[in-house]
């Protein structure tokens, strides 16, 4: 194995991908397998470079000293020779001008190659000030002082060279080869992701989440145990957390082959609806390979077909409360199915091409990659397994479970109509699911699709955690009915509407801006340009807090739990879990954005100091 030439932390000169420009960078790590150096530019951008694209800082300083020592002697000798010539000899005068012009262009070429300024993506922001990413969409200049300062600094640094360039171009004194070369350098308008696609090959995951290998190993057992504990507690007459542990059911009572068959049938039914040629086909965001996957948007149609099927079964006297009577068995069967799916996903990921692996699940550790997900977008033909599980079996199953709990409450308590608490819980959560399916295309821009692999974490979360934990309030109300007044119901409804409005409007702003930043409907939004070619919104909801969608989620989660009263904390587990989950996601997003956007993210954090809760956190 060849030894590495540059050490971690060493400051060197790195070539910008696709150009002949070198910039001052710092070596952060080295991949022994791919033989690539991960370097960090001054603006926070990180790239993987080959060794022949990196030069030591001393070699550049040596070149500069040679050029500075040799150029004065050439200029003095040229001046001495020019003094000995008669001014009436025009031919030699032209030679002198040509020699000086050639020397000037050679010095200028070295300056271009050896400059240690910001990458060309930021230079394009200066050279083309009329582009949208340097202004707000209503045509007004960006009002942030940070942006103005950065552009003034660039102008001061590049103004002399720009003046010289204009003179050379005006009098056609630039050779064609050099002109063509400079056009290639400064015509780079590709985004950071495109450049990264060409030059950077996937590397090993170095920063492990959830406690690394030991933490993820424990989570594989802790998550199913948590689900079974919550469901067991809801079945108790006194579901207080002080009554721990709850009575454990017999193992043989947890499994029934018929129930497992119904789970498989439900999965197959939703897969059939997914494959129906209805709904539009859209492209996702660019992958690391540069290509875009296609997705069929028909989740809402699948929901309508499922509702029609359930309605038909109820018409023929199907007892849907069977689901309530065997709820624990359904949870165990779903957990077993998600484990088998996770094993299948990991085995098939071992044969997946390198560029199709997930950046967060390519650590080389079996347990960690199994939990996080080794392959980014596992597909069987056009059937995208991760995208399908994200919204279909679990989310639609959540609504069916809530309906089963409503019918079970009416049967067990001999009610002619459901309780007001049960109606509120079902209505609020139905709105949430319908909204997700109606705006199905928005999920394509989430980190679950663009960054996380499909492993046990998402498989168990989509197929077990969502349908069986998110329906905890409805399951709780069946065994512990709670009466609330109409004024309280109105107040809870208003709270849920506020949370939903924040959640939906914030997500719509973000998704529309990502899809088409030049949309005239978004002209009122202002943003901070980044080295990736994208912008960070500093107005609207994203100028209020950094994660307004999380704020809306938490408010809605509280509204879902309030109809259960305050007798026990168990129905509020979802709120506590949701706060912990979103704080973890927020920390992960902060770290990811800081690495991706560099200095632009620091400017954004100064403009928007609060993360989730305004004036608090």
Protein model, in words:
This protein has 617 residues and is α+β, with helices and mostly antiparallel strands. The protein folds into 3 domains: 10-57, SH3 type barrels, CATH 2.30.30; 203-483, no CATH class; 484-616, no CATH class. Helix content is 57%, strand content 7%. The chain contains 22 helices and 11 strands. The strands form 4 sheets. Strands 4-3-2-1-5 form a 5-stranded antiparallel β-sheet. Strands 6-7 form a two-stranded antiparallel sheet. A hairpin with a 4-residue loop joins β2 and β3. The protein starts with 10 loop residues before the first strand and ends in a 10-residue tail after the last helix. Its EC number is 1.3.1.70.
Outline the secondary-structure elements.
Elements (H helix, E strand, L loop, with lengths): L10 E5 L6 E10 L4 E5 L5 E4 L4 E3 H28 L5 H25 L5 H8 L17 H26 L5 H11 L5 H8 L12 H23 L22 H19 L4 E4 L10 E4 L1 H17 L6 H4 L1 H23 L16 H7 L6 E2 L2 E2 H7 L1 H20 L7 H19 L8 H4 L5 H14 L2 H8 L6 H30 L11 E3 L5 E3 L10 H14 L11 H25 L1 H9 L10
Antiparallel strand pairs: 1-2, 1-5, 2-3, 3-4, 6-7, 8-9, 10-11
Helix pairs in contact: 1-2, 7-11, 7-12, 7-17, 8-11, 11-17, 13-14, 13-17, 14-15, 14-17, 14-18, 15-18, 15-19, 15-20, 19-20, 20-21, 21-22
